[in-house]
Amino acid sequence: FRMNQKTKGYLEIIISVVLVGILFVLVSYFVESNLEFFKGAINSYFPLGIFIFIALAIAEVVIAPTSIIPLIPLASKVWGPLLAAELIIIGWAIGTTIIFIISRRYGKPLVKKLVSLEKIERIENVLPKKSIFLNIVILRILVPADLLSYAIALFTKIDYKLFIVSSIAGMIPLAFAFAYLGELPII
User: Fold this and answer.
1) What is the pLDDT of residues 45-70, one digit of tens each?
2) Exposure string for 112-136, b = 16+ CB within 10 A, e = fewer
3) Cα dist. 43→26, 79, 119, 146 in Å?
4) What rounded mean pLDDT belongs to the chain?
5) Whole-angstrom Cα distance, residue 24 to residue 8?
6) Residue 170, Cα to own-chain centre: how many angstroms?
7) Which residues 6+ apart lie within 8 Å of 167 measured at CB?
8) Beta carbons of 53 and 6 less than 8 angstroms apart
9) What secondary structure, in 3-state letters, does the chain show?
């Protein structure tokens, strides 16, 4: 049986989500099993660990397809879910800002070197025309940050400040959900 492009796309998303979920659980288990080692190792380089985590969160957004979701249990268990969520939001917000600047300044020629334009153009069809703040908040929860940010910057005339505020508002629930899920005991 042959799959059409839409079905193939959904299958890729489902497989990606399942793999990231499995990695999340495995890392949670591994970290929980060796928590004192990780706390000692990471806290002995406390500021550096935070900067590395933020850099990875930025890279996750700017360079598709990457994900820090499997590392969130480590951050949550070492620094606590509140700080982990704050670091995730900082990284994602900086990454989103970078994407917005790249997309607005250099447009499609550079963006197509970083991500699939086909995927971005598919998102263009769901971009809001009205109630843009609320719609971006909702889309930010549902659509990967990298693709959504590229699409919004390329295909809308949204003001940068409104884009960032609405993006951060949409990131907050996800960051806190992942951070608190990452702290849950697996064993």
Assistant:
1) 778 889 989 998 998 888 766 778 88
2) eebbebebbeebeeebbeeebeebb
3) 22, 9, 40, 30
4) 80
5) 24
6) 11
7) 92, 93, 96, 136, 140, 145, 149
8) no
9) CCCCHHHHHHHHHHHHHHHHHHHHHHHHHHHHHCHHHHHHHHHCCHHHHHHHHHHHHHHHHHCCCCCCHHHHHHHHHHHCHHHHHHHHHHHHHHHHHHHHHHHHHHHHHHHHHHCCHHHHHHHHCCCCCCCHHHHHHHHHHHCCHHHHHHHHHHHCCCCHHHHHHHHHHHHHHHHHHHHHHHHCCCC
What is the identity of the amino acid at 33?
S
- For 89, phi and psi rounded to 5 degrees? -60, -45
**Two tokens at 152?**
């919004």
pLDDT tens-digit readout, 90-125: 999 999 999 889 888 888 777 777 777 777 777 666
d(CA 90, CA 92): 6
Residue 51: both structure tokens together: 């900067």
How many residues does this entry show for the chain? 187
Helix 5-33 × helix 72-79 angle, to 10°: 30
Give the C-alpha separation, 5 to 62, whole Å: 25
